[in-house]
């Protein structure tokens, strides 16, 4: 795959955050009642991202071990870090690594990039605060996904 295609796919996957912000800006009254559902959807999507990549690398014990370490780290971050912004920054950095790891298989790459896009919608919906208007912070703080994913392409 050429870098320009990879770069634009990573940007499109990252736009899930922007979609989530737009969703809450359109219907702010729905943010509080849907909070627990956004959390549930976010956790299910995160688990799905790991499940698909684990199924692909199932034959390689080393890769499965590394992915399980990432998964344990994500679970630790999910349940020990209380600040949603910091949690999001760390998880998106790991998602950048997983995005790169899925590059070898076109079908897996399509699934992973779609799931990361979908993951961004509930994440941004949970992080956005209409009173503070922190949409720039959400977009900039999670930019590690695009940076890490694209730097790994050249390694």
Q: Please, could you describe this protein's structure?
A:
This protein is mainly α. The protein is built from 8 helices and no strands. It starts with a helix and ends with a helix. The mean pLDDT is 92.
Largest sheet data: none
Fraction in beta strands? under 5%
**Tally of extended strands?**
0
Shape: globular
- Count the domains: 1
Radius of gyration: 15 Å
Mean pLDDT: 92
Q: What is the share of helical residues?
A: over 70%
Order of helices and strands: HHHHHHHH
* Alpha-carbon distance between the two ends: 14 Å
Structural class label? mainly alpha
Low-pLDDT sequence parts: none
What is the count of helical runs?
8
Short précis:
With 155 residues, the chain is mostly helical. The protein is built from eight helices and no strands. The mean pLDDT is 92.
Chain-wise SSE layout:
Elements: H1 3-14, H2 16-26, H3 35-56, H4 61-80, H5 84-101, H6 106-127, H7 135-141, H8 144-153
């Amino acid at each position: 795959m050429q870098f320009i295609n990879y770069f634009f796919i990573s940007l499109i996957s990252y736009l899930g955050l922007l979609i989530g912000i737009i969703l809450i800006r359109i219907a702010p009254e729905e943010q509080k009642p849907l909070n627990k559902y956004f959390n549930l959807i976010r956790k299910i999507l995160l688990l799905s991202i790991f499940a698909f990549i684990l199924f692909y690398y199932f034959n390689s014990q080393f890769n499965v071990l590394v992915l399980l370490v990432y998964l344990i780290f994500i679970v630790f971050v999910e349940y020990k870090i209380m600040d949603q912004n910091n949690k999001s920054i760390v998880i998106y950095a790991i998602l950048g690594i997983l995005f790169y790891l899925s590059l070898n298989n076109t079908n897996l790459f399509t699934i992973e990039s779609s799931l990361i896009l979908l993951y961004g919608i509930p994440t941004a919906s949970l992080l956005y605060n209409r009173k503070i208007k922190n949409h720039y912070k959400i977009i900039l703080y999670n930019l590690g996904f695009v940076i890490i994913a694209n730097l790994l392409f050249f390694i």
